[in-house]
Amino acid sequence: MPLDVSSREPQAPSKATVAPQSSKSDDLTFLDVLIVLAERKTTVGWVTLVFTVLAIILSLLLPKRYTATTALLPPQQNSSLASALSSQLGSLSGMASLAGGGLGLKNPNDMYVGMLKSRTVEDAMVQHFELMNEYHKKFTSDARHEFENHTKIDGSGKDGLIHISIDDRDPKRAAELANGYVDQFRKLSEHMAITEASQRRLFFQQQLEETKESLANAEEALKETEQRTGLIQVDAQARALIESAALLRAQIAAKEVQIESLKTFATGENSQLVQSQKELDTLRGQLAKLGGSANIDEGLIVPKGQVPTAGLDYVRKLRDVKYYETVFNILARQFEIAKVDEAKQGSLIQVVDAATVPDKRSFPNRALIVICSMLAGFFVGIVVALLQAITKRVKSEPRLARRYHLFRDALSFRKRTV
Fold first, then answer.
1. Are 201 and 100 within one domain?
2. pTM value?
3. pLDDT tens digits, one per residue of 93-124
4. For residues 89 and 267, is the Cβ–Cβ distance under 8 A?
5. Domains: count for the chain
6. CA atoms of 163 and 403, how far apart (whole Å)
7. Cβ neighbours for 114, distance < 8 A, ≥ 6 positions apart
8. Residue 170 and residue 111 in one domain
9. Structural element, H or E, at residue 361
10. DSSP one-letter string for 87-99
11. Would you say 258 and 334 are in contact if contact means Cβ atoms under 8 Å apart?
């Protein structure tokens, strides 16, 4: 055997040449390794074949999975608005981030990716598609974690899109899950204000709902007063004073709401905020000339000589109705303007490529599994062949056998007795 070349030494070597010859004979060259592998090529081949066959069987037994992908386009940020707000807000980066500037993220898509991965959206997916039964989980949290293992959301691509990939054993179900993910995210975003226009729209919507409720209460109170006292016709001068005061109070209230809306994203130096504050002061001055007050419970009361005492309560209820009607109309116009501005910025999420039913499986990749297993079997076969050669040499040479026994004893944890 090539590894046993050390045993073929000259019969009568001189003392000066014994050591160098034995040293050279003990060296293991790459050619010796190739010779050993060539002699044991059957072992290498069988090990490789076993690994390949096992890989083929495993790839056939593994469950098939299909991946459906949808591509989303997030809202494009308004760069001019972002820079203007950033210069006004200074260190208030939190509000600037809502307007699209100073977000502090390397990729603006990170915020939307985080919202897509939120527990609210994932739990909605688990409940809507009954994934607890699909994944055989008893708890929603376990089903959510399992769903995360089958979902990949990536928004770091150079194309600026957000890609949602979901794999499932059923190709049709995989497409339904990918498209349903977008629907559940839209339901979440309907209740959230992300852009500046969305904030204004949500703010005016809340104020409009409160005013609508107050108007309904005022109308009900006026109706009860009419039924109790009888319908009273107020003269033209009194009605004009009531309507003028109600209109001014309503304009003041609407202007205060508008100022509060501006303060959510602007500082006191904002030109629009300064202009609105001046208009508010002017309206208050006009109301003061009429002898009224911005407080609805105080202010302009028509003199008793012009309105009978029995109709005083009716006048007050009528004033409340006029006030809330005017506030409602002003806020409704502001709300519609905010909705138009929000629509101009585009929808929150736009679907570029909807998920379709995949026609090819994404897992398992049988060719890759077989090739990797074949290479692994080949290397394992080489190791087995070399170990066989080393074991044979150790058994054939007493000197190496003694070293082997010393090595084995050194690895043992039992203490040897001398």
1. no
2. 0.47
3. 443 344 444 434 456 678 788 888 889 889 98
4. yes
5. 3
6. 62
7. none
8. yes
9. none
10. HHHTT-HHHHHHH
11. yes
